Amino acid sequence: MTTTTKAAAKKPTTIDIDGIMGRIPHRYPMLLIDRIIDIVPGEGCTGVKNVSANEPAFQGHFPGHPIMPGVLIIEAMAQTSATLVVASMDGVTSETHIVYFMTIESARFRKPVVPGDQLHIKVKKERQRGNVWRFRGEAHVDNVLVAEAVYTAMLVEKSTLETQAVAG
User: Fold this and answer.
1) Can you give the residue ranges of every domain in the chain?
2) pLDDT above 70 covers what percent of the chain?
3) Does domain 3-167 have CATH number 3.30.1850.10?
4) pLDDT tens digit sequence for 114-136
5) How far apart (Å, rounded) are the C-alpha atoms in residues 131 and 157?
6) What mean pLDDT is reported for the chain?
7) Are 64 and 115 in contact (CB under 8 A)?
8) How many Å apart are CA 63 and CA 142, to the nearest integer?
9) Which of 153, 72, 61, 143 has its CA nearest to residue 105?
10) What is the mean predicted confidence (pLDDT) over 21-35?
11) HSE-up of 161 (CA within 13 Å, CB side)?
């Protein structure tokens, strides 16, 4: 067994809500994923989001006809990807690093997402160069594609942010 295989064998294949919160800094109401499943470290995973009628966005989007905003679906994709990045690397947690969105490309919304739906957010790494990761994300409800996007994110050490803030 190679070192890479041993390291991959130690990584979890599912992450619950506590594990997600240990990897990304988001908290309610901006924490938009409930579980991560099917993890292949450094490659891809599936985020699960249970869409509930009591979420703040539904008060105004749209009264009497609630639809999950597309930007929140894209944010759920980003959170799924960020959790994957941090879970794939040794010594990286939400205490030491943060993952920032850099670009969003090719976003498409195919079908409305409503309360009661369960989103399965499938993310796959397209490439990685240093601390920049490019992903393709697809959101599905009942195996039907409802949204998709290509986006990039950067993993940044928090200590460098503190140094920049002091120097700035």
Assistant:
1) 3-167
2) 89
3) no
4) 999 999 999 999 999 999 999 99
5) 10
6) 91
7) no
8) 25
9) 153
10) 96
11) 11
